[in-house]
Amino acid sequence: MNRIAMRTALPLITAGAVLLAGAGTGAAAPADEPVPADGATIVLNDGRVVGADDTVTFTFEGEKPTAAKGGFSAMACPEVNDRPKYTVKGSPHFLPDKKKPQSTWLLPRQTVSWAVAGSHTFTWEIGASAEAEAGAILAKAKVSVDSSISNSWTWNATQTVTDTNNTSKGYRAVLGQVGWKLTGVKTWIAPPCNVKKKTITVVAPRKGDMSIGRQNS
User: Whole-prediction pTM value?
Assistant: First the structure.
């Protein structure tokens, strides 16, 4: 699955009744709010499956470090003035709709269809005290990964999402949105001449329609 296919908009259709049907099995009952599971399989409304291993890697340099008060130590090596380097791996990531959760357990051959409308907001998730670095990673990802990526996205339309369990095992179908998980490793030289590394993880939405994620529990 390439990024161009992922960016294809899902069709907008008139809202209808929620449908849960099965062939040869009883209908699964609606569940409470789902517990998000990392690495969920993402299913677009036309049945295409987005693989979590569809990754993109890119690198960039950060801002030049500023000297600490009093300047660098005389023992510091010249490399402490080098710009930090970031290596980032991005992969498609499912973001459950946490404010308006909707999910159901699907047995083999069962189908779920949800009529979705109104405002659904998705925001990025980052580590503590990492907003500035996360912002730099997100800005570069707009160019290197997906121009639709954002720190916040509100979907406000009418759409029907469906999923059919064509596997041999049951799974939970969860309403949400296709986003990106960006894992960046920052490398820099700290005084006097020590190599430092820091991992920054950013889970961010993208400007796109609603989807269904398949989770194991």
Answer: 0.77
Q: Which two tokens stand for residue 22?
A: 């099965």
Task: Answer whether residue 9 shows pLDDT above 70.
Answer: no
Q: Is the dihedral of CA 17, 22, 25, 28 positive or negative?
A: negative
3 state SS of 106: strand
Q: Which token pair is 160?
A: 């029907």
With 0-12 / 13-18 / 19 or more C-beta atoms within 10 angstroms meaning exposed / middle / buried, residue 130 is middle
Judging by DSSP bridges, how do beta strands 85-96 and 41-43 pair with one another?
unpaired
56 CB-contact burial (10 Å; exposed 0-12 / middle 13-18 / buried 19+)? middle
45 neighbors 209 (Cβ within 8 angstroms): yes
| Distance between CA atoms of residues 152 and 147, nearest Å | 13
- Going by C-alpha positions, the residue among 184, 6, 175, 199 that lies closest to residue 94 is 175
Average pLDDT over residues 167-177: 93
Number of helices followed by number of strands (H, E) in the chain: 2, 11
